[in-house]
Amino acid sequence: MLSDSEQMNISLSPQMARFIRDNRFMIDWSQCPGVESVPDKLGGAWVFSGTRMPVSVVFENLESGASIENILEWFPGITRTQIETVLGFAAERAISPARRQERPY
Length: 105
Description:
Order of helices and strands: HHEEHHH
CATH superfamily: Winged helix-like DNA-binding domain superfamily/Winged helix DNA-binding domain
Number of domains: 1
Shape: globular
Strand order of the largest sheet: 1-2
Helix content: 40-55%
CATH class: Mainly Alpha
Largest sheet: 2 strands, antiparallel
């Protein structure tokens, strides 16, 4: 499991953000805490819990060169913890299953 300090320093390169964005449909987001898919919210897209903010907005902005701080400023409805949880979850799933250990989130 990632330590608190490791979780607080998660960042992705624009290339990794693009890879995750392009493969986001292959990630089982139902296992990620802090996100939900509700049919009445954006057609069932995965959003940050309690918001109408799609998870994909994080990856799209990181791919464009934005920082987490930029995203927090531009989208005040989400928190750093929510972003870092999603980034950590997606990064873990982007690693080959043979090279990673299952981590509870």
